[in-house]
Write a structure and sequence with these properties.
single chain; mainly alpha; 5 helices; globular
Length: 89
């Protein structure tokens, strides 16, 4: 059980991270209009990038490679929300 292995602060960070990853999965399902296994956004890989513009570009490239059918506006909104959520981690 996670609570036995980690302290309160670490558990809070783990829960935050899990919530963001769950949110990403839900948003990807909406962007692709279906449950999709074609794309997986590696949160660690995104966080390892130095600037927000690098992070946006990385995620945009993933969406392009997997032929995301969403509109530019939907993708822009997703990226804005994603950047805010990543800043909280």
């Amino acid at each position: 059980m996670l609570t036995m292995k980690y302290g309160k602060h670490q558990m809070m960070l783990i829960k935050k991270r899990m919530n963001v990853e769950s949110w990403i999965d839900g948003q990807l399902n909406e962007l692709y209009k279906t449950a999709t296994d074609d794309i997986d956004i590696d949160v660690d890989a995104v966080l390892d990038l130095n600037t927000e513009s690098e992070r946006r570009l990385y995620v945009m490239e993933l969406l392009r490679k997997t032929h995301c059918p969403a509109t530019e506006l939907q993708i822009h909104d997703f990226l804005n929300q994603l950047m805010q959520k990543l800043d909280m981690l």
